[in-house]
Each structure stands twice: as structure tokens, then as C-alpha cells.
Amino acid sequence: MRKWILCIAMCASLSGCTQYVVYEEEEVEEPAVVEVTATPEVTLQPVHTGEPVTADIPSSEGVDMDLTLMSGTVIYSEVYRMLTEPQEFDGKVIKITGLFSIGQNEQRQRIFGCVIPDATACCAQGIEFRLAGDYTYPDDYPALGSRITIQGKFAYDTMDNYYNVHLDDAILVEG
Fold it and tell me: Are 168 and 156 in contact (CB under 8 A)?
């Protein structure tokens, strides 16, 4: 008998109290009817004709592409193009502003760069530069991380299917 009482008590405890919630049905408004009028027929033109896409890039005297005159978004886009399509920029004189940086190449030689942060400061890009003339580091170079403007002739090398872009015969520009 005790087993039956224990069994009934366990079943009662497992069923527990259940609370049912009854929701009242809400009235839903009918959607508004919008009259659509015909629009004139639009003819779409191809976006890309196979020719390289070029933009009107500002330049200053003696400079083919002056990136110091552009917005952050355009600078980021153009530097990205330089890194991925260097043939389009080969031999052009480029002027750019960024932060002075130092690194090493595969031969453990010191290289100097101008790092250009993007507008959100998440995806900086840089270009190596090689100063024209006989300069000694650190005497003839700016402080690490300082803001610089450089101008030089764009060039690139291909190493192991990668492009190494740099500005040759570069000068540090005031302002």
C-alpha cells in the first residue's frame, strides 16, 4: 500500500502546477493600398566596358598623383590599387601623407615606409620609400610614428608572385 501512495505522490509531483495564459485576439488593421504609377522605361548601360576604370586624381606641379588632396576613402582605394595593380602607376610621381615607419625585408635590411591609416583606423596600408641622396638613419629621418609627406617615383618588383611597391628617389616634403 505504501508503494501505491508513494507512486501516486510522485506522479502528482511530476505533473506540477501548470499555468495557462489566454491571450486576447487583437484586431489587425488592414494594410494600406498604395497606388503604383508606371515609371518611364530605363535603359541600363554596362558599368564596365573592359577599359581600366580611372578617376580624376588631383595632381600638383611635378606630381602625377597627389594623394594629399584626397579624402581618406579615396586614398585607401588608390593605395589598394597601387598594391594590386602596380603596372598602372609605374613611373608616376606620387605624393602621399602618412606615418613614418621602419621595417625589415627578407634579407633583414632596414626599409622605410609611409603608413596610411584608413578612416576607421582598422586597415592601415603602407608604401616603402627610398630617399634620394645619401641619408643616414636615424640622423636624417623623422621620428618613428611622426606624420610625414613624401614624394617619389612609383616603382615595383615582382618576387615570388608578389608585388613589392616603393617610391624611388623620394623626398620628404615640408607641410
Answer: no
Name the grid cell of 55: 578617376
Cα first-last separation, the chain: 99
Secondary structure (DSSP) of 32-53: PP-PPPP--------S--SSPP
Q: How many Å apart are CA 53 and CA 87, to the nearest integer?
A: 14
Phi-psi region of 50 (alpha: psi -120 to 50; beta: other; left: phi over 0): left
Give per-residue pLDDT as tens, 79-135: 999 999 999 999 999 999 999 999 998 889 999 999 988 767 777 888 999 999 999
Domains contained in the chain, CATH given: 65-173 (2.40.50.140)
Whether the pLDDT of residue 153 is over 60: the answer is yes
- Report DSSP state, residue 154: E
The structure's pTM equals 0.64
